Amino acid sequence: GAGVSQSPSNKVTEKGKDVELRCDPISGHTALYWYRQRLGQGLEFLIYFQGNSAPDKSGLPSDRFSAERTGESVSTLTIQRTQQEDSAVYLCASSLQLYEQFFGPGTRLTVL
Amino acid sequence: SQQGEEDPQALSIQEGENATMNCSYKTSINNLQWYRQNSGRGLVHLILIRSNEREKHSGRLRVTLDTSKKSSSLLITASRAADTASYFCATDKGGGNKLTFGTGTQLKVEL
């Protein structure tokens, strides 16, 4: 079956611009996660959606970051007024049960 | 902040040898998971060990967990070139399965 998909795969933007990253989770997965991975580093948790509950935004690094999820489907991560330090790979994951997470291929964001 | 720290940061072995990677963490956990990441397949879940378990096996993988030392190890036996990847431990402290990842071990298996 289809896995988690993300778009775009690569995004190059200028400092100060806004960007939107998209995640399509595996159908039926109730939980969705966003992580950020800087070059040579592990993943940093950003935000977590579970069903209709309020999202856990505790990992968002600043108020320039926000995310939405429509029901139990698509999610978008928005970064406003991008900074060079936002350059990273942004990974989305979904899960059906509270254990194994299935990751998408990521969006590589480069802020010039 | 990094919950998990893996060591070594990099490991190079010959095909057929065993590879051992270690992970240390700082706070109490619900479970600990190991993931593999390579450019071809992205991030893939390998194995999960719960806080009340001490050892778990899956194929050529063996994971141990010592909650008193807040540490875990991943052993890959009879390594293959295809095992070349970065390996991350990730801890789940409960409350939603938010994972906290370590910095990873880069494993290179040479023919």
Distance between the termini of chain B: 37 Å
Measured distance between first and last alpha carbons of chain A:
37 Å
Helix content of chain B: under 10%
Low-confidence stretches of chain A: none
Biggest chain pair interface: A-B, 26 and 20 residues
Helical content of chain A stands at under 10%
Task: Describe the 3D structure.
Chain A is 0% helix and 47% strand. Chain A has strands spanning 5-7, 10-13, 19-24, 31-37, 43-50, 65-69, 75-79, 88-95, 102-103, 107-111. Chain B is an all-beta fold. Chain B has strands at 5-7, 10-14, 19-24, 31-38, 42-50, 55-58, 61-66, 71-76, 85-92, 99-101, 105-110. In chain B, strands 2, 4, 5, 9, 10 and 11 form a six-stranded mixed β-sheet that branches. Chain B has a five-stranded antiparallel β-sheet with strand order 1-3-8-7-6, with no helix packed on it. In chain B, strand 7 (61-66) and strand 8 (71-76) form a beta hairpin. Chains A and B meet through strand 4, strand 5, strand 8 and strand 9 of A and strand 5 and strand 10 of B.
